[in-house]
Amino acid sequence: MIEVKGLTKFYKQIRAIEDVSFTVEKGDIVGFLGPNGAGKTTTMKIITGFMPPDSGTAKVAGFDVFENPMEVKRRIGYLPENPPLYNDMTVNDYLRFVAEIKGIESKKIGEETDRVSESCGIKEVRKRLIAHLSKGFRQRVGIAQAILGNPEIVIFDEPTIGLDPNQVFEVRSLIKELAREKTIILSTHILPEVEMTCRKVIVIHKGHIVAKEHIEDLLRRRTKISEMTVRVKRFSIELMKQIKDRFDVKVNQPPEMDNGFNIIFESPEDKREEIAKYIVDSGFGLLEFRPVTLSLEDVFRELTTEEKTA
Amino acid sequence: MRNILAIFKKEFKIYFDTPVAYVIFGIFSLISGYFFLQIFSYFQRQSLQFLQYQAPQMLEHMNLNDMVMRPLFLNINVFFLLMIPVITMRLIADEKRLKTYELLMTTPVSTWQIVIGKYLASLSVILAMVLIVFIYPILLSFFGSEGGLSTGSIEWMPLITSGLGLFLAGAAFAALGIFASSLTESQIISAIVAFGLLLLFWVIGWASAGAEGVLKEVLRYLSILEHLDQFTKGLIEIKDVIYYFSVIFFGLFLTQQSVSSQRWR
Amino acid sequence: MKKIGNIAGIIGLFGLIIGLFLFLIQPETTALPLVIMAASLVLIIFYAFANFQDVKSFFAARSTRYGTNMLLLVIVTLAIIAVINYIAVRHPYKFDLNQDKIYSLSDQTLKVLKTIKSEVRAYAFYPPDAPETERLRDLFENYKYHNNLFSYEFIDPVKNPERVNAFAITSTGPRIVLKSAERESRVKDPTEEGLTNGLIAVVKADKKKIYFVTGHGEWDIDSKEETGYAITADAIRKEGIEVAKINIGTDRIPQDASALIIAGPKKLFLPEEVKAIGDYLQERMGRLIVMLEPEIKTGLEGLLLDYGVNPGNDFIVDPMSRAFGMGASIPLVAQYSDHEITKGFEVATFYPTARTVSPVQTVPPGTSVKTIASTTPSSWAETDLESIKKGEVSFTEGADTKGPLSIAVAVSRKHASASENSPDIRIVVFGDSEFANNKFRPYSGNGDMFNNSVNWVTQREDLISIRPKKRASSRIFLTQQEANIVKYTTMIAIPLVFFAGAVVLTFIRRRK
């Protein structure tokens, strides 16, 4: 459905993305993951035809974005990083306007705006001025705008940024809802967001793609079995010492942790069972024993170093 | 066509559903009303003087068309130069600032449709301003018809040509204004650039005073304020119409190029 | 290196603009702007050199390709627009939507313009801020609009004294010169009537020719001496009128004579000669200028009386002239009538040794006799000619007439059967002949007085009269109350409606 090959874009001397290639199949829900400034927005702007690449091509449904922009634009619903809203319009006027410029038949406009208002939960604010809407509603109107006219492909750029946890939850479920029938690309810098909504993930870092994989693979990658966190009810330095000596592992206590420590295995041998048993038996009151979860930055570090060694 | 209409409707709504247009009309009617009152009271004082000094041949020269309405239109033309950048400044610059530009550029609307739709909306504001000017002669036409001293009436045809000319002049200014708006995302800068452009076209006219021969004629022709003159005399000259349409077309063409340059820049 | 390069680039760009600007506004091409532009170009090349990598990638980029395409497209569009505008300017077309078509030319003018088959150029000597300029430009544009062969040019007399001299334009004379390949004519009145009549004069096939009569001691048009008329004759030739001599005693008055001029005869005309002149006037709608001198009997007196002109047997004395550095025998004229010859005349003219010529009490039927120039009130007509020779003149109550005295008259007569537009007989009689000679011609308005007279008598065209068009007057006198209504409506009510609308809308929107 979407085929991106060797996209490169510079802003003046600064590289935004370099040699970005990936494909998205019909019906895929792809998370575009990367820290701020990684080049997510640039890639999306290029795919939607808003901005040209310096080199490389992007094809949507077989149409080149640069050569055939109109065909591409007809097929894509796009929610940019900042929802493209006119503060001076009411939600209703705004949706009608977008429906008109998207070329929806005038007879169907009413029906279509009703549908998207319904599915985005903005029915009760339809007569309000956009300027007076809360951030959450603004985002939803933005999404409503993107899915107007039922485009085959929907692209969301950071759809949950700046929302409160409740709103984030609502927006994510909305996207999940959509995911049943559309091809979706969703960019974010929040790992759980990808985990919760996407089936595939493309990780981009400093303008380069560092991983393209299924979400399960990423999850696996995130958990580092060679490093375990231990939390106990009655912590003492003694415990750390005993474990270090008895099992021939490294231990360390991160400063923020006052009732636990990390165990790092240096040999491939799996000693988890024995260690758990030992802690329980020695009566420190085991509360938690789990693999260390990496932060997104760590994953990136991991991915990028992997690339280099490979 | 539908797309143009959609863009036009949206811009029209933003002008007229918000206080913007009415504030502009308020300021405009205040200034043009002041112009009118000054010119008209001078005209009245002069007529009275001629009447007192028993100068019938001078009185015969006094007519509302040439001595009140014509200078009024010419003054408003200059005032338009200042006013129209304010009307056009937000057209494209504000889309860029609000990021709604991305919406327009990623929906299947051509750049021409965007530019023309927006431009037509600004013309509706200008048309309304031209119509405001017509309030003054209409107001006058209620008075003096039965009074023994007042004679004759306003000739409407030259007023209509003046109005047409003023509208065309405004439309030409707006075409340059929308171009300025496409260059930046700041409304203030857009207005300043538009004003600068218009001023340049005005200054060309002054430069013609110093020039000689063909250059003088060319500069005079290029000057954007020159071309209303004939309209205010009740004359429609094809070359003036062509001039205005040329400026309009070229302004819109540049705007379209500037907007679509987004696609490859 | 790069930083210096950038600075060089910026300076170069500015330099180029300034140089171009100077180049365009300078009246004469000088080296300075060219030097600036060349230096700027060097700086820009240096910039390109310093930023070679950037420049290279710039030219390789897709955006450059598209940018160049756009630039080309813009230039082509501009060129097309320029061509369309050029065509529109060269082929003007307009609609006059005024009630009385006040900005359109009369049918007579249009008819005349249709007869123009070769180029005619008008030179108008008016400064740009003269009151006549705007209306005159409109007229010229209108003429041009109807016939492309007509062109015009305004010349600012203050800025172009050399052209003023070349065209022999004076402050009192006509300021518009219409010129075709063969002929020129001068237009005094900057109106449609004036211009159209001027055009007729230029287009008319025959050239004007005036004959100076000889054989009675008249002043010689070939003589360059002070009393000669050579300079005067040249001045007339400059206006496109041929000048020749004729002895009417031996030769018949030629067919091509536009007018006869008798300039200061000293001897009697023979009766046959007088008859020839009379016939010429009567039968050929002749034109004549007679310039007399005091005391000299010419034999023309009877003829002049027939046309209502009475040459006085006197000598004009004016002590006032001394104030102007002239003798009392050179009367000064500062008062003119509203005749075509003297219209708008505001300068003095001087007439050395002059007699009065005045209209008779009862003018013959169909004749108009008009004094065109009168002496000052301090002058008088001395009848005691002997006293002059003695050099002891004084005003004698009863015998001498007190000024102002008529010193020049213009006569025109029409046949009873003639229609309004058919030519008339024209005669101008001066009580002096020296005022126009080589010596006195340059004095004040003397030259113009003579030239204007020649122009008037040689005007043979069926003169067209065109009523100047203007908009019907419309004026309003408001009562105090009405004035207040107008004032409050325009300054308060209308703006208030809009501002109130804005406020109401703001409140409505605040709730939405």
Describe the structure.
The complex is a heterotrimer of chains A (310), B (265) and C (512). In chain A, 38% of the residues lie in helices and 28% in strands. Chain A has eleven helices and 14 strands. A six-stranded mixed beta sheet of chain A has the order 6-7-8-3-9-10, sandwiched between helices. In chain A, strands 2-1-4-5 form a four-stranded antiparallel beta sheet, with helices on one face. Chain A has a four-stranded antiparallel beta sheet with strand order 12-13-11-14. In chain A, a hairpin with a 7-residue loop joins β12 (250-252) and β13. In chain A, α3 packs across α4 (106-120) and α4 (106-120) packs across α5. The longest helix of chain A is centred in the middle third of the chain and has 15 residues, at 106-120. Chain B has one domain. Chain B has 13 helices and one strand, in the order ααααααααααααβα. Chain B has helices spanning 2-17, 20-52, 56-59, 64-88, 90-98, 100-106, 111-133, 135-141, 156-181, 187-210, 213-222, 228-232, 238-260; one strand spanning 235-237. The radius of gyration of chain B is 21 Å and the shape is globular. In chain C, β6, α9 and β7 (242-246) form a beta-alpha-beta unit. The radius of gyration of chain C is 34 Å and the shape is elongated. In chain C, α1 (2-25) packs antiparallel against α2, α2 (31-50) crosses α3 (52-60) and α5 packs parallel to α8. Chains B and C meet through α2, α4, α8, α9 and α10 of B and α4, β1 and α14 of C.
What percentage of the residues of chain C does DSSP assign to strands (E)? 15-25%
Question: Helical region count of chain C?
Answer: 14
Q: Ranges of chain B with pLDDT <50 over ≥5 residues?
A: none
Largest sheet of chain B: none
CATH fold group of the largest domain in chain C: Rossmann fold
Global geometry of chain B: globular
**CATH architecture annotation of the largest domain in chain C:** 3-Layer(aba) Sandwich
Determine and state the CATH class of the largest domain in chain C. Alpha Beta
Q: Estimate percent helicity of chain B.
A: over 70%
Q: What structural class do helix, strand and pairing data of chain B support?
A: mainly alpha
